[in-house]
């Protein structure tokens, strides 16, 4: 164990936000702290980092213990002493111990050229082992990998820190924090404003990180891929669960159901006993039995009714005022950006009524620019876009959730919708959790989550048939994200959205617009199908085949006279082709069966990998990881074999058909 908070309580202005909680950080733990906004998640990080000091009552065990002298680091501790240094020079500071050792080894090598003594050889061997242990042979590739993943180019490496923007400096500080490799790494919403490439890199890094990590995050996919312990804050209590986020959800639900069953069983027992007491209280012949039951009830340890999950969230529904035409948006050679000589992207795609288009890709490559273009916030460079018949849109803009106004929520909303009376205004705001005196809060005083709710409330009141949403889940806690997901799934209009939240994107999008080059492409499928194409091998192969031009009969021209076709399959007789066709069909069935078995095996291995019983057994985890990789390779090979045999079946089937027709003629 490295850190422990013992039976502590914490609050502000005399009111506790956390009561009697215990929190432990053990070696190698990857911990998530989850809960509603304002529940105290960041407070725990501040206690661990030393920014908040807990009150220590007299004659009590230590409230906050550190075992040994672990290094604990947070993002705000990462500063730049000299902004004239280049990016590369600043990042290399994180490897000062390795670089110093590297220089010492180089000096020893030179000495050994002239003085090959046993003592020097032993020292060289010892330092080389230490260099390898510290990752000395990999540190430059590690640095190159993280800089690339976070969007920095080779040219950027030589730029002085002073020339980077504020956002880029925050990224650099974050990179320094990660590469400093403290004993306990504290991360508060680490995936905010990172694109998918950077998040994927961070996931892999944290998963292989040998030390401890404590994370506050609302990114469910990120938590599923990185953590093995969950601490949930709910009803001012802190509860520990073993496993990743998905395992936590299952365990929490199972625990609640179990507690509820025990509570209900005891309540039935109490009711039966009380009924007996009431019925026979005044019968002398039953006096002893009644007294026995009264004493039994007095001694009974009452099981409290389990508290339901804190699922308070906005409860609005949105139904379009009018229905749009079947084609909602068309973009034809649409060039977007801010520089005519260097457009960010050229787009050709359309969106139909009822579709939910998720726009994904890296930062700064045109996703938000596209939304600003089709909402006419900024001009396009060339080409054409057209909104369809009867389209009325509501636009949620990232920057729209920033206000400096002294207006209240009530007055701001009333001015936008002057036809609504007081009751209607309060009803609309109440649906988004602004009730009572909350409506008198000033816009400038609202938190990020409150501002997002207000923006959504304003949009939904318009009842548009097209929702255009730019990072709508930023600042939302998990419960609010789930509420928005359910709302959008039940929405009968069309949705176009940008998001880096993979869980949200996978659940909502029916197709994707993928920004990976200057000519983004449409992918017809979910995010999981896009990122893991082998999850459904047959579907994937079918899609690949469908992309090819479809011939009338066969892909290859067949001339059975002269010249002879080069493909041996096309030279087969009717009997040979029929036999080969049956053989290929049988092989395809076997490949599909093997693929299904491999997929089932992979599923079981992934479940074993997050099993809490082996979560700290590094040797077992590595063995499972190796088997996962082997199984995935098998699945990939089966997919390729399926593709080859499927194409072969197409050919021999065409040969059989053509030979049959020849016989008839």
For the CA atoms, what is the radius of gyration?
32 Å
pLDDT averaged over residues = 84
**Largest beta sheet, briefly?**
6 strands, mixed
Quantity of strands, as a count = 18
Q: How far from one another are the termini?
A: 84 Å
- As laid out across the biggest beta sheet, the strand order is 5-6-7-3-8-9
Overall geometry? globular
Helix run count: 20
Uncertain regions spanning at least 5 consecutive residues: 535-565
Helical content band: 40-55%
- Name the structural class: alpha/beta
Q: Per DSSP, what share of the residues sits in E-state strands of 2 or more residues?
A: 15-25%
Present the secondary structure layout.
Elements: E1 3-12, E2 15-25, E3 30-35, H1 41-49, E4 64-66, E5 72-73, H2 87-92, H3 96-114, H4 118-133, H5 139-149, H6 166-180, E6 184-188, H7 196-208, E7 212-216, H8 220-226, E8 229-234, E9 237-242, H9 245-280, H10 287-299, E10 327-336, E11 345-352, E12 356-361, H11 367-374, E13 382-387, E14 393-396, H12 409-416, H13 422-430, H14 448-461, E15 466-470, H15 478-490, E16 494-498, H16 502-508, E17 511-515, E18 521-523, H17 527-531, H18 537-547, H19 574-609, H20 618-664
Parallel strand pairs: 3-7, 3-8, 5-6, 6-7, 12-16, 12-17, 14-15, 15-16
Antiparallel strand pairs: 1-2, 1-4, 8-9, 10-11, 10-13, 17-18
Helix pairs in contact: 3-4, 9-10, 18-20, 19-20
């Amino acid at each position: 164990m490295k850190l422990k908070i013992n039976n502590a309580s914490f609050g502000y202005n005399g009111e506790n936000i956390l009561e009697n909680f215990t929190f432990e950080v053990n070696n190698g733990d990857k911990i998530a702290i989850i809960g509603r906004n304002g529940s105290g998640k960041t407070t725990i990080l501040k206690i661990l980092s030393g920014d908040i000091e807990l009150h220590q009552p007299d004659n009590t065990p230590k409230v906050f213990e550190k075992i040994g002298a672990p290094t604990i680091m947070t993002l705000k501790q990462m500063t730049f002493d000299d902004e004239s240094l280049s990016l590369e020079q600043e990042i290399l500071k994180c490897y000062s111990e390795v670089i110093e050792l590297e220089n010492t080894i180089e000096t020893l090598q030179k000495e050994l050229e002239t003085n090959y003594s046993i003592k020097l050889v032993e020292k060289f061997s010892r330092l080389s082992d230490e260099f390898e242990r510290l990752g000395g042979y990999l540190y430059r590739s590690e640095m190159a990998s993280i800089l690339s993943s976070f969007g920095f180019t080779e040219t950027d490496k030589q730029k002085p820190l002073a020339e980077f923007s504020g956002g880029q400096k925050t990224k650099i500080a974050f990179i320094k924090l990660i590469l400093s490799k403290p004993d306990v790494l504290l991360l508060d919403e680490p995936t905010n404003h990172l694109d998918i490439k950077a998040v994927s890199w961070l996931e892999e890094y944290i998963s292989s990180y040998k030390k401890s990590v404590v994370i506050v995050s609302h990114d469910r996919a990120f938590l599923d891929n990185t953590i093995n312990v969950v601490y949930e804050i709910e009803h001012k209590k802190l509860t520990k669960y073993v496993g990743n986020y998905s395992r936590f959800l299952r365990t929490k639900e199972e625990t609640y159901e179990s507690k509820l069953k025990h509570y209900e069983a005891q309540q039935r027992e109490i009711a039966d006993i009380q009924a007996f007491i009431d019925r026979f209280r005044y019968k002398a012949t039953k006096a002893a039995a009644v007294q026995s039951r009264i004493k039994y009830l007095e001694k009974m340890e009452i099981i409290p009714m389990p508290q339901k999950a804190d699922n308070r969230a906005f409860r609005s529904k949105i139904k379009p005022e009018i229905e749009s035409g079947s084609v909602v948006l068309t973009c034809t050679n649409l060039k977007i950006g801010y520089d005519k000589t260097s457009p960010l992207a050229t787009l050709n795609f359309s969106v139909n009524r009822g579709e939910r288009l998720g726009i994904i890709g890296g930062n700064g490559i045109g996703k938000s620019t596209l939304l600003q273009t089709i909402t006419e916030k900024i001009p396009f460079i060339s080409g054409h876009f057209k909104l369809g018949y009867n389209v009325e849109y509501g636009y949620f803009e990232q920057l729209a959730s920033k206000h400096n106004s002294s207006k209240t929520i009530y007055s701001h909303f009333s001015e936008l919708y002057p036809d609504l009376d007081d009751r209607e205004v309060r009803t609309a705001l109440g649906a988004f959790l602004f009730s009572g005196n909350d409506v008198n809060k000033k816009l400038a005083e609202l938190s990020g989550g409150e501002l997002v709710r207000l923006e959504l409330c304003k949009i939904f009141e318009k009842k548009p048939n097209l929702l255009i949403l730019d990072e709508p889940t930023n600042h939302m806690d998990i419960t609010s994200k789930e509420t928005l997901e359910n709302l959008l799934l039940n929405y009968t209009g069309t949705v176009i959205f940008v998001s880096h939240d993979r869980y949200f994107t996978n659940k909502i999008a029916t197709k994707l617009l993928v920004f990976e080059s200057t000519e983004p492409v449409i992918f017809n499928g979910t995010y999981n199908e896009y990122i893991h194409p082998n999850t459904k091998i047959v579907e994937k192969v079918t899609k690949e085949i469908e992309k090819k031009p479809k011939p009338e009969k066969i892909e290859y021209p067949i001339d059975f006279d002269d010249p002879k076709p080069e493909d041996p399959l096309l030279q087969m007789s009717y009997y040979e082709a029929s036999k080969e066709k049956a053989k290929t069909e049988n092989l395809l069935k076997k490949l599909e069966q093997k693929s299904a078995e491999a997929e089932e095996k992979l599923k079981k291995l992934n479940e074993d990998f997050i099993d809490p019983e082996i979560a700290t057994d590094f040797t077992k985890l590595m063995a499972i990881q190796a088997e996962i990789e082997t199984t995935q390779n098998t699945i990939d090979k089966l997919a390729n074999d399926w593709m080859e045999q499927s194409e072969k079946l197409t050919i021999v089937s065409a040969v059989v058909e053509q030979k049959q027709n020849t016989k008839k003629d």
